[in-house]
């Protein structure tokens, strides 16, 4: 299973409150391990200052890194005093997502936590370009932490694909459930719910085929999805009351059920591809993510290969 004992927290440079670090400490206190508070910073104005020599620019960068390191140390002071193992690392890098992924590759981090923003409780979470790059390209699971308190008795909702007959979807479904249930058992025995969506009757079929009975079609599709869900829940000994199969598009069904359950996190599988196409999550995953109002844990298939290469010149 994913032990989540070598966590990288992407620090938000814009605010003192760090929900992702707080969530990492919450996990650490229950499952152990170590935490790295990581911040890639860059100020283009320093590179454009022609009046400064290369050595002076280098010293200015070192000064900024030192200031930011001390700032993070202040944010983490209470946790460190409480005995939490937190390493602080600040580097100069102009592409944050690349810096984070290269750090993951270089030091075998098994989870990235990053804060995401939400304007108010009625709006979906807002994802930045860096967030999307991490969700698409980071080889380890990415936990996007909402800047709102974790709900009381917050549940974990696993979004499963019940429609596909392709083997990699079944393997990914099982991985999502296995990792989530094992993690939930270690963290406060969190309730785990499985959610699947099935499509509505295509309007064009009903119009073009006069003898077509939409209700029969809907019943057949629902039946197939219920059978698939039953097989999944039985494999992992999950009660029927913790499974949900609903009609509609996944990007509507999954966020809505998560909201009804007052979920703390939605766990979602992202399609893994090699080569250039590894930059893509898949349309369904992206649409679901865009509608969420809670934390998101995105997990890749076992065969995922990140399109970001490890920088051999990286300094430890």
TrEMBL record:
GO terms for cellular component: cytoplasm. It holds the Pfam family Usp. Residues 4-146, 174-300 form the UspA domain. Keywords: Cytoplasm. The keyword Glycoprotein does not apply. Coiled coil: none annotated. InterPro entries: UspA. It is found in: Cytoplasm. Belongs to the universal stress protein A family. This is Universal stress protein E. It comes from Duffyella gerundensis.
């Amino acid at each position: 299973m994913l032990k989540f004992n070598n966590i990288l927290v992407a620090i938000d440079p814009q605010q003192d409150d760090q929900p992702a670090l707080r969530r990492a400490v919450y996990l650490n206190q229950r499952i152990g391990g170590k935490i790295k508070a990581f911040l890639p910073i860059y100020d283009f104005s320093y590179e454009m200052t022609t009046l400064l020599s290369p050595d002076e620019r280098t010293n200015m960068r070192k000064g900024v890194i030192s200031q930011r390191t001390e700032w993070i140390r202040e944010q983490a002071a209470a946790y460190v005093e409480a005995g939490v193992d937190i390493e602080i690392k600040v580097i100069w890098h102009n592409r944050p997502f690349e810096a984070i992924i290269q750090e993951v590759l270089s030091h075998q981090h098994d989870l990235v936590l990053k804060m995401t923003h939400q304007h108010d409780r009625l709006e979906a979470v807002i994802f930045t370009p860096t967030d999307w790059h991490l969700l698409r390209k980071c080889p380890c699971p990415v936990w996007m932490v909402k800047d709102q308190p974790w709900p009381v008795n917050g549940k974990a909702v696993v979004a499963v694909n019940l429609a596909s007959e392709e083997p990699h979807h079944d393997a990914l479904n099982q991985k999502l459930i296995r990792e989530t249930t094992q993690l939930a058992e270690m963290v406060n025995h969190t309730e785990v719910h499985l959610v699947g969506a099935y499509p509505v009757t295509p309007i064009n079929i009903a119009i073009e085929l006069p003898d077509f009975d939409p209700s029969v079609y809907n019943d057949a599709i629902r039946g197939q999805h219920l059978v698939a869900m039953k097989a999944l829940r039985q494999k992992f000994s999950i009660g029927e009351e913790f499974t949900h199969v609903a009609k509609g598009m996944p990007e509507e069904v999954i966020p809505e059920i998560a909201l009804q359950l007052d979920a703390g996190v939605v766990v979602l599988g992202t399609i893994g591809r090699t080569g250039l196409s590894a930059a893509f999550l898949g349309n369904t995953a992206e649409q679901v993510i865009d509608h969420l109002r809670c934390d998101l844990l995105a997990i890749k298939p076992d065969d995922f290969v990140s399109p970001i290469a490890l920088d051999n010149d990286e300094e430890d």
